[in-house]
Amino acid sequence: MCKHILNAQVSIRSPCCKKWFDCAECHAEAADHNLARSTEMVFACKKCKKCFRKDVTDWDESDEFCPHCDNQFVLDAKTPQAALRIEGEDIRVDSKMIKDDRVREDADRSISRYDDIVSSKLG
């Protein structure tokens, strides 16, 4: 699974070391050499798990799809974005996580105190 491109639809076989990678950055991290360029590329579709070759010298719109399952593999890349979030429940649903320090709590508030009040009123 590629950590650089989140929506990678194919794996690419590098022509230099004959190993499979999801992107050129994955090859750069794993290999100790530069990625060799060639006019013919070998792909493996992640949807149907079948391999196919494409000649990049005469590329057209029909070459953006897997020839076996018609999965479109030429897409705008979705890359991971850094974000800071607070983990927890949605504050609009459950506000137990937020404590307002401006509101003072009763020191003598307890369950037994309320039990006494309820039992005296109920008789």
UniProtKB/TrEMBL annotation:
Stored InterPro entries: Mito_Tim_assembly_helper, Znf_CHY, Znf_CHY_sf
GO cellular component term of the entry, any: mitochondrial intermembrane space
Key words of the record: Metal-binding, Zinc, Zinc-finger
MF GO annotations: zinc ion binding
Residue stretches making up the CHY-type domain: 1-71
Pfam families: zf-CHY
GO biological process: protein import into mitochondrial intermembrane space
Residue runs in coiled coils: none
Source superkingdom: Eukaryota
Name listed for the protein in its UniProt record: CHY-type domain-containing protein
Protein's organism: Ascodesmis nigricans
High-level lineage: Eukaryota, Fungi, Dikarya, Ascomycota, Pezizomycotina
